[in-house]
Model the fold of this input.
Amino acid sequence: MAQVKHFLQFKDLSRTEIEYLFARTRTLKTRHKAGTLYQPLKGKTLAMIFDKNSTRTRVAFEAGMSQLGGNALFLTSKDTQLGRGEPIEDVAQVMSRMVDLVMIRTYEQGIIERFAKHSRVPVINGLTNEYHPCQILADVFTYIEHRGSIQGRSVAWIGDPNNVCNTWMQAAGILDFEVRIAAPAAFAPLLDTAQAAIAKYHLDPCDAVRDADLVTTDVWTSMGFEDQAQARNSAFKDYQVTASLLSAAKPDALFMHCLPAHRGEEVAADVMECPNSVVWDEAENRMHTQKALMEYLLLGKVES
Done:
C-alpha cells in the first residue's frame, strides 16, 4: 500500500506543495464564485470527528466537500465507540476502510498522530491543543489575496501564544516571514532554536505591532482551558488589539482573527469592523483552502 499523506501540522507540506494549494485555492474560489459546477470528489466520503465544538471548521469542511461532489459525515466521540473507550488505533483501522478522508478536531496532538499512524486514508488536523494548520492555510492565503506574497513580511501575534500562534511559527519557517509575539511574561513562549530564527517575543505589544504587515489575535482562553478564564482575562488585559495599537502597524496592515471573537476582550469592537479588517474573508477562505487541501490529498496535483 502506498504511503498516505496526512496534514497534521503545517510543516507536513513543503513550500512547493503549500504554494500549489494557494494557487489551487484561487482557482477553486474563482470557479465557485462564478457558479461553475466542479465535482472531482463525487463518490468520496469525508468523516469528521469532533471532540471540540466548532462552527467554521464544520461548515467549511461539510460545505466544501459537498461543493466538490462528495459526502461528509459528522461524528462526535459520543456517536462512536471512542466515547466508550474503544482504542483510537482500532477506530482508525475500521473507519479508514469505509471512508476516503478523515478530519479530526480534538485535544492532544498525540490523539490525531495515533489515528493517522493506523489510517489507510489521509487524516487532516481540524484543530488540536498544539496546532491549527487549516486555519493558517486560510490566513496566509487571505494575506496573499489582499497584499501579495507574505515572504519577508512581519506578522504580529498579540495575546495567548496558543495552537494558532504555534502554527504561524511553522508557516513562517516554511514561507520565510517573521512572527512577533506579544504576551505577558508568565505566558512567554519557549522558543527553540528554529523558532527563535523566525519569531521574536515582546513584552510590550506596541513593540510587536510597530510597522507590522499583519496584526492578528485569538481568544485569551482556548477550549479546554475554561477553568483559567478569570486569571487569563486579568493577565492579558493590556493585550487587547485596539485601534490605537493597530495604528502602530503599517498603514495598510491587515487585521485578522480566527474567530469566534470576544469583542471587548482580546479585540475592540471597532477593530473587527475597521477598513483593514479581513476577518470575514479569512473565515470564508477556510472553505476554499480546505477544498484545495482535500482535493490534493485525494487526487494529487490537478491541472484543470
